[in-house]
Design goal:
By secondary structure, the chain is mostly helical. It has six helices and no strands. The longest helix is centred in the middle third of the chain and has 26 residues.
Amino acid sequence: MTFVATAMTKGTVTNEDLRDFSIKTVEARFFYNDEIAKFLEEMQQQALDLQICHKMMKEAPTEAERQRYAHGWSTRAKWFSDLPNEINAKFSPFLNKESDGR
């Protein structure tokens, strides 16, 4: 959730954030399932897109391009703001198994 919190509060992520997330989640398929692994891959791609849009909406050479990147950034920022509930829903079955002693 730290990765998501960073994306939500800063509006972007650093290359180090992306690298750390990738290292921490690369083996998710072995611990969870394919659905969770794909979800984490999507999260990483959305974060990369968020980072690119954040940078380019400030550096794009034309107003039209800045607006296009601002829209892309806004879409991804919303995606991250909706994420905590989705994370809870996706991971709760795994947490319940542990707490039930299974």
